[in-house]
Design a protein that fits this description.
The chain is of the alpha+beta class and 174 residues long. It folds into two domains: 93 residues, 2-Layer Sandwich (Alpha-Beta Plaits); 67 residues, ACT-like. Chain A, domain 2 (Alpha-Beta Plaits), CATH 3.30.70.1150. The chain is 24% helix and 40% strand. It contains four helices and nine strands. Strands 5, 6, 7, 8 and 9 form a five-stranded antiparallel β-sheet that branches. Strand 6 and strand 7 form a beta hairpin. It starts with a strand and ends in a 17-residue tail after the last strand.
């Protein structure tokens, strides 16, 4: 299975996320991660999906179907392009006075930070690619992880690729 990063620029309207994810479901794609947020263009949001695929032709079919949706402005598989991709994770780890310095020693090389300290736990915040997030989670696991919250990957292409601002050519009707 290959992991693919698919982005979609969409009108920011009620029900769009449901219709878009419904197409993934219909095509039997498992969405491993999804993030959605506003862009620099008012009324336009960007969805970033991380999916596993066996056959690249299936992803091409999905992209064609997504592009036919009324509220979808543009869909791209950016996996094979130069990409900047990040994820944020917060990890609540069991900790006492004795283990806090050990945990801090793990956190520091990852350029992560401890954002909350309680009597029996610390919360670590890490930002980076998926491998970095997975690596710090694996190192913290022996201390006892109480909770993990992850944003899902968000990504865009590097360099002089058309930006969301170029989408202004589409009429955005509210």
């Amino acid at each position: 299975m290959k992991k693919r990063i698919v982005t979609a620029l969409v009108h920011n309207r009620s029900g769009v996320l449901n219709r878009v994810t419904g197409l993934f479901t219909k095509r039997q794609f498992n969405i491993e991660s999804i993030s959605v947020g506003y862009t620099e263009v008012e009324g336009v949001s960007k969805m970033t999906f991380l999916v596993s695929v066996e056959d690249d032709r299936k992803i091409e079919q999905l992209i064609k179907q997504l592009n036919k949706q009324i509220d979808v402005l543009k869909v791209s598989d950016i996996t094979d392009q130069g990409v900047v991709a990040r994820e944020l994770a917060m990890i609540k780890v069991l900790s006492n006075g004795q283990t806090r310095s050990e945990i801090n020693g793990i956190v520091e090389p990852f350029r992560a930070s401890i954002i909350d300290v309680c009597r029996d736990s610390v919360t670590v915040q890490v930002t980076g690619d998926i491998d970095k997030v997975e690596a710090i989670i694996d190192l913290l696991r022996p201390y006892g992880i109480k909770e993990i919250a992850r944003t899902g990957i968000t990504a865009f292409t590097r360099g002089n690729v058309k930006s969301v601002s170029d989408i202004r050519q589409y009429s955005i009707v509210n």
